[in-house]
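Researcher: I'd like a structural prediction for the single chain below. Treat it as a standalone chain; there are no partners to consider.
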Amino acid sequence: MRHFHRLAVAAEAIADYKGPMSIVYRETHDVDLEQLAHLFTCADMGDRAVDRARLAQQVSGSMFVVSAWDGGRLVGFARAISDGVTNAYISTVAVLPQYRRQGIGREMMRRLLAGRDGITFALHSRKEAKDFYVECGFLETADMFRRLRKY
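Model: Treating it as a single chain, here is the predicted structure.
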């Protein structure tokens, strides 16, 4: 299922903002791959973490990256692939299970979208995440196609 972003988002991306529970948000590609692999495994995305070279490419190949940290612990990660001007695809939004429902995913989404009102964002999600993305300003659409990866 894919959605389009159609909501204006405030452009207040503040580096190292401390949100709930003193979570620190970073908008940088500098992410510990071992912690990211652990996060993906805990978030039922373990298939993305098996090959560290592919994991590193997922991070470096993204235009926009937001990570959430509780001290030195990576607790959330979100990324979007984009041309930086017209279109972007949000490929990953993951939060450790024990940190969910505390606003971390919402803040990472806000940061991915902030100041990018001229870009159309698209994503596909699991059914159980639909309400979350609707609350983030995405609308369901039926006019999209996808080809699933083969491995």
